[in-house]
Amino acid sequence: MVLSASILGVAAICVTAFARGHCKKAVQLPDSVDAIIKKMYPSADTKKIKMEKMNIIAYEIDLKEKGRETSVLVCEDGTVVSFESEVPFENLPKNDK
Does domain 26-91 have CATH number 2.60.40.420? Predict the structure, then answer.
């Protein structure tokens, strides 16, 4: 019981540190990337941020806005490379053929 309470305490400290940007694995977005995400998705909650190094440095940001999950890939200069959003089946265009 004491061990599980200690593990929970350490987990809570790490989550708090991560949220405040003190954890080594936290990714700090460049201002240009942060600005474009806030412009495109002003009321979204950020779920996950991952830096990807290809031929360029880009940031994959997973968001949730108005119940819809979205993933955006943005270069460090603020250029949006791609984005993916959930579309409920009932909102897909109907094939009239």
Answer: no
In whole angstroms, give the CA distance from residue 84 to residue 10: 35
Higher pLDDT, 58 or 97: 58
CA distance 9 to 2: 10
For residues 63 and 45, give the distance between their C-alpha atoms in angstroms, rounded to a whole number: 6
Could you read off the pLDDT of 4-27 as tens digits, one per residue?
Answer: 333 433 333 333 333 434 334 567
How far apart (Å, rounded) are the C-alpha atoms in residues 33 and 41? 12
**Rounded to whole angstroms, how far apart are CA atoms 75 and 81?**
7
Domain ranges for the chain: 26-91
> Which pTM value belongs to this model?
0.59
